[in-house]
Structures are given as structure tokens and as C-alpha cells.
Amino acid sequence: MRLISTLKSELNKLFVFELKDGNRVEAVFYRGDTLCVSTQVGCAVKCPFCLSGKEGLVRNLTSEEIYVQYDLLKDRVPVKRIAVAGIGEPLMNYSHVVASFWKFKKEGLKVSFYTTGFPHRYLKELIRLPHNGLTVSIHSTRKDKRKLLVPHGSPLDALIKTLREEIASLSKTKKKKISLAYLLIKGINDSYEDLDDFAKLVSELGVGATLLYYNATGSFEPLSKKEYEEKFLFLRRYGIRVTLSTRFRRDPLGGCGTLITNRN
């Protein structure tokens, strides 16, 4: 595995790695301290708003391939945190992801995860790992919309059931490290009725909400900045913790949904 190119914007640095089999994956350094790493070549979930799964899943990365993304960059950029949020669904490569997690922890790094929550048996284990943050992508609490946005992810009922069962027994401190992600897409899941259902679930579970801004990567339409802020203020009325997309996540280079497999 080798680093073959580096792309830069005003906010992010994107690194392209070539694996021994010739496939390419990407990692992003952002916020001045965080490296977002990939766990698979491609992604089987194939969310239509995300470029990472456009060609489906090619293969899993080994734990060494996940770790080496950091190892090859640690002397180039000041990494203090790892976000397991790049190309791939971490739970679909769980054994290798967990092995790399312990390697990162041994280096003294803080590690956070982003997942669609499937398979559920691994979500249960992931919740209880000594991570520094876990964000579970919901995007809708309505079955038809969830299926549209996360076509090959967890069935909604089973995912919510798993979250209810596992989060109920967590301490308040541990619950604060868990968030449900909701990507706003104009005309799909941005109605106040949709957000009302989402806010009620977040409140019931006692976790946080991450309200993501859609980077225009496909056929959907993003909200205006004003509309996005209005939805944020609406959720805040429920007394829940709501986090907005940072400028790093909204960057066309390396922002949410923009990483691709086998970039030319």
C-alpha cells in the first residue's frame, strides 16, 4: 500500500492510497487534528447521496490497510483523532475494523465511528466499545424514505429496536457520545412532520442529533443555507442536542459523501 497523491482545498487534505491489488481508497485530514479513514473498497449500502458506494462493494480492507492510512500520514499531518467515516460501512467489515481500532487506541488516538447500523449484532458491540463518539445514520424514521436513502442498510424497525435495547442501559456519559445523523434533502425528508418524528426518537433515546447538510453529489437538491438553519432551530425546540455540519464536512473536497473508490 502506498500514498500516490494528495489533493488540497482551503479546508481539507485528501489522500489517495493505492493498494497492492491496484484498487484505490481515500482518507481525509480535516479540522487540524482528525484523519477520516476508509474501511472498504467501495460500499454495499449504496446510498444515492454518497459517491463512495456508486460502484458497489469491491472488497473489505484488512486491519493493516485501515491502520496504514494513518501510519503513512502520521509524520505529515498532526493526527490526534481518527474518524472511521470514509469509504465503506464499518460494521460490514467489523473484525478488521475492531482490530484497527485497538491499534489506533494503542497509539493514544481518539476514535469515533459513523455507521448505518447494519449488521445489528455488530452495532451492539460497537456501542459498547471505548470509542470517543458513535454516529448512526438514520436519515428518516419513515420506512419508505429510509429505504430510498439507505437502500441496502438496516431495516428501520430492527435498527430502532436495537438502539432502544442497547442505549437504555448506558450511562448519561456514554449516551452523550452517541448521535443519530439526519441528512436533509429537499423535498424528500425535510418536512416539519419528518423532523418532528426524528426529534421524538432522539429525545426518547436520550442521545444527540447530527443534522447533516447535503453536498450535491447526485440527483437530489440541497436546502438553502436559510432553510437548513430553520430546520436546525426547529429541532432545538425539542430540547435535544443538535450538531450542524461543519465547514469541513461541507467542503466539496473530502466533505460528506464525496469520497470515491479508484479516483483517476
Q: Outline the biggest β-sheet.
A: 10 strands, mixed
The CATH superfamily is Aldolase class I
Reading the helices and strands in chain order gives: EEEEEEHEHEHEHHHEHEHE
CATH class, named: Alpha Beta
Number of domains: 1
Give unreliable regions as ranges.
Answer: none
Q: What would you report as the Rg, rounded to the nearest angstrom? A: 17 Å
Strand content: 15-25%
Structural category is: alpha/beta
The CATH architecture assignment turns out to be: Alpha-Beta Barrel
Helix content: 25-40%
Distance between the termini: 17 Å
Q: If you average the pLDDT, what whole number results?
A: 95
- Backbone shape: globular
The strand count comes to: 12
Strands ordered across the widest β-sheet: 1-2-3-4-7-8-9-10-11-12
Written description of the protein model:
The chain is an alpha/beta fold and 264 residues long. The chain has one domain (2-244): TIM Barrel. The protein contains eight helices and twelve strands. The chain has helices at 63-71, 94-106, 120-128, 143-149, 156-167, 172-175, 192-205, 225-236; strands at residues 2-8, 13-18, 24-30, 34-37, 40-42, 57-60, 81-84, 110-115, 134-137, 178-184, 208-213, 242-244. The protein has a ten-stranded mixed sheet with strand order 1-2-3-4-7-8-9-10-11-12, covered by helices on one side. Strands 5-6 form a two-stranded antiparallel sheet. The longest helix is centred in the C-terminal third of the chain and has 14 residues, at 192-205. The radius of gyration is 17 Å and the shape is globular.
